[in-house]
Write a structure and sequence with these properties.
By secondary structure, this protein is mainly alpha-helical. It is built from 7 helices and 3 strands; from the N terminus they run H-H-H-H-E-H-H-E-E-H. The chain has a domain of about 80 residues: Orthogonal Bundle (Arc Repressor Mutant, subunit A), CATH 1.10.10.10. The chain has a 3-stranded antiparallel beta sheet with strand order 1-3-2. A hairpin with a 2-residue loop joins strand 2 and strand 3.
């Protein structure tokens, strides 16, 4: 087998040799499937994790509540870029904020976000 044959094997998708629908399994899965809108919302949720800057912000906030100035300084980015990403994270309910005088502090919305980050890191470390 040459290199070209190896490449073909790596990209081939295994398929059934004949069509046979296992109706009991299919029906069981249909009953368990979430509604389409829930799956769309879930896909949107995971899209948020597709941006390295947002991931970095979430990791920062998993360590400590911080204001925009501190996050921008830590990540060596402009405050406006950080504010833009925080707005997106807040809209998706991944972060929350509180005002203390003229300063607005951000933190993770709940423990689920930390769990998602930890599980993601565990997965890529395997």
């Amino acid at each position: 087998m040459d290199l070209e044959d190896n490449k073909k094997m790596d990209t081939e998708i295994d398929q059934c040799d004949f069509i046979c629908v296992h109706e009991s399994i299919v029906n069981q899965v249909i009953k368990a499937m979430p509604k389409d809108q829930e799956l769309i919302d879930l896909a949107d949720f995971f899209k948020i994790f597709g941006d390295a800057t947002r991931i970095r912000i979430l990791y920062v906030l998993s360590q400590s509540e911080m204001c925009v100035c501190d996050i921008a300084n830590l990540l060596k980015m402009g405050q406006s870029a950080i504010s833009h990403q925080l707005r997106i994270l807040k809209q998706m309910r991944l972060v929350k904020n509180r005002r203390d005088g003229k300063t607005v502090f951000y933190s993770l919305a709940d423990g689920h976000i930390e769990t998602i980050l930890a599980q993601g890191m565990e997965h890529i470390s395997e």
